[in-house]
């Protein structure tokens, strides 16, 4: 095992420990590594976008696979001396002692959390198996790739109306399955004006044949042919470590950060989907860069204070001035 794989093989005190090696975490590590900070990135290997074959909307990386992006990113940050540690963080103590599964402990001056979120999917047969393939969430991420094909929107909450209203930009054949969602008169008027059809009834399952989505089956047995289905998952931030550190939250339960990702707890930043459920890959990468610069500036101020304190402690005592002729 190399030094980069074994944090206990060397002095394990870091300027910054980044938890999470997605686009946000690696982007932050890249900036901090280039700033000649001692950085470790700890990652448990569970990227949110692993089911997706490609990512879109990232300038110069459009169409690249998420796995390839992370592979390139890890190589880039390693080139600047960043330690990449494949492990799970079990606990972060105030101080900051970052405790890894297996017993290793890293000491950090600052912590940057980029642990992302998990998608809670509706318990409809077929949804989980097709997630990231032809069962989708974000039209900006995947709409172009399934353009001009029959879409279905399976409602899991009020946001489905907005999703259905957005999708006709990519297809003229959009059907909303509201299920238990009560549509107001205004909702129905807007959907109709947008050309979205509404089909009542409970969704029983997705119909898949020859490894392709074929349609949406309702509880009564009717199958509505569809080539792509959009759902809104329940987005749950992976923020247990932030909870344990007692970071302030907003009314929706998400951790509160400023424009740089700084939380209410001194020395703790949160970036990417753990702090913003709307962040796409390119957005998360930008958030990581912004946070890294803020973290470095914070460390610079601390470095200056420490240097002043050290200089004052080492300065010789000045002899008292004795008046002439005394």
TrEMBL record:
Keyword Flavoprotein on entry: yes
Reactions this protein catalyses: [thioredoxin]-dithiol + NADP(+) = [thioredoxin]-disulfide + NADPH + H(+)
Assigned keywords, A-Z: Flavoprotein, Membrane, Oxidoreductase, Transmembrane, Transmembrane helix
Transmembrane spans: 12-32
Stored Pfam families: Pyr_redox_2
Sequence ranges assigned to domain FAD/NAD(P)-binding in this UniProt record: 14-288
InterPro entries from the UniProt entry: FAD/NAD-bd_sf (IPR036188), FAD/NAD-binding_dom (IPR023753), Ferredoxin-NADP_redctase_2 (IPR050097)
Top-level taxon: Bacteria
Protein name per UniProt: NAD(P)/FAD-dependent oxidoreductase
Annotated source species: Streptomyces albipurpureus
